[in-house]
Fold this sequence. Notes:
Number of domains: 3
Largest sheet: 6 strands, mixed
CATH superfamily of the largest domain: P-loop containing nucleotide triphosphate hydrolases
Amino acid sequence: MKIQKIELNNYKAFYGKQLLNVSGKNVFIYGENGSGKSSLYYALKDFFQSSIETINLSKVENIFIEPANKGNVFIKVSFKPDKDGKKRGKTYEFSTAVNDTRIVGDTSIRDANSLKSFLTYKHLLDIHHIKSDKEIDLFSLLVKGVLKHFKYTLTAGKELGALWSEVERLLSTETNRSYNLIQKKREVNAALLEFDTAFNQLFISPTASKPNPEYLLDHAKPILELFDNDIELILQYKKGKLHDDYTGFKKEPTVNIDLKYAGKPVEKPHLFLNEARLSAIAISIYLGMIKRHPQLKPYKILFLDDIFIGLDISNRLPLLKIIDTHFIEYQIFITTYDKPWYEFVKSFLEGKAGWVTIEFYATKTHKGYEIPRIVDNSDYLAKADQHVRENDYKSAAVYTRTAFEREVQKFCDRKNIPVPFHKQAKKYTSENFWNAIKGQGHLLPPMVTDIEQYRDLVLNAFSHYNTEKHEIRRELTSAIIAIKNLKVTLDAIV
C-alpha cells in the first residue's frame, strides 16, 4: 500500500478542498511558516489515529468557514495497491459522517497507526534546555517527546506518555474528605509502579542469561552510528523520590548519560554534547524504537515535520541516508521551512524515482486571511510552459533561464568539469558553467548555436526590465524547446 492522493476539506489551514497527488512516492515538502505544511502533518496523523480514537473534527475546522458551510471537514486518503496487494485502489474517508479507518475486517489503517511514526520538531524542543551544570537529563525529552507514544507488552496497551501523565494527574489531585491521603498514596504508588516497570525495562542491558528485546540502545545504536559522530552511550534511568505528602517529587526522575567519544570516556557530557549531537541521539532513539515494532504491516508511513531545525548540515545528510537504508518499505513525508536546504535536497533527490517535491506557500485572500497555495513537483521548464500558456512571458523567461542555469551547473558537478574559481558563490554565473561545458566538446554545434541565440535574444532580455524589447511568444517557446533539448542531451552523456 502507498498513498496516491490526499484530499482535505476545511481542515485547519486548508479552506475548502485541497488535493495533493503524491503518486505513491516519498514526499519532501518546503513550506514557509503559516503555509499549511504542519496542517498536512496533523491531518494525516488524525486520519491514522481515528482508527483507534474518537477525534472531534469540529475542533480542527478552518476558523474562517462561513457558518452555513460548517460541519463538512473531511480527510480522504487513496491507496494503491490495496491492503491485499492488488492493483485496484482503495480510498478511506474520515469525516464528521464517515470513518472508513475502522471498517470491519480491514485493520490496515489501525496497523499503520500502531507504528507511531509521526515526529514533529515540538517533540525535540526539550533538547534546548536539558543541560545542567553537572549532567544531562533526557527524561522529559524521552517521556514527553520522542517516546511519548511508544507502547509494548509491559505498557499494557497504553502509551508511555499516557502512563506518565496519569502519575502527574494523580500527584496534582488535592486530597479532601472523600479522597484522603491514604487513597492518594495507594493510587499514585500503583500508577508510578506501572510506569517505572515499563520505562525501566528500556534501560536494562541484556545478558546471555537474561536477554532483553526492549533494550533501547540496541535499537538506536545502528542508526546513531550512521550519524558518524563516533559516540557510545549508556543511558541510566534513576527513579524519582516523592515528597511525604505526595504533592510532587522531592527528587525528579532522570535519564542520565555516560558517554565515550572515539573510545575515550567523556567526563562532562554536558560540555561535549551540542544540540546537533543531542538531536541525533534523540532521533536515533525515536527511529530505532519505530523499527522495534512488528513490521509486517500492509502500510508503513514515516512523517518527519521540521525536525531538521536542530540538526547542522553534517547531521542532515546522514539522516537522509538513514531513511534510505533503514526505511525502504516506508512511505516518507518530510517537511522543512529552510528553503536553501530544500533546494539542496531537491537537487540531491533528482534522479531518484521514488521521490516528489512539493512547495507550500501562504496566500492572502481578498478577505484578509491566509490559505495554503501548493506548488506541485513540476520542474522549472514545466512552470515556464504554464506561464507561456497564461501569457506571462516574463515569468516564463525567468523559469527557463533558471532551468538552463540549473542544468549546466548540475552537469558540471556530475562530470567533475572545472570552472573558474571565485571566493564568493554569488559571483558564479551561468556563463562560467556554460563555457566550461562547451570547452569539453560534448555538444553538437547546432545546439550550441541555438542556446547562444536564445540566451541573448530572449532569456537575458526578458528577465530584466526593458521597455524596448517586445516579448514574443514564438521566440520564448523556441527558447524553452532549446533548453529541453539541452537537458536531454546532457542527461544522455554518460
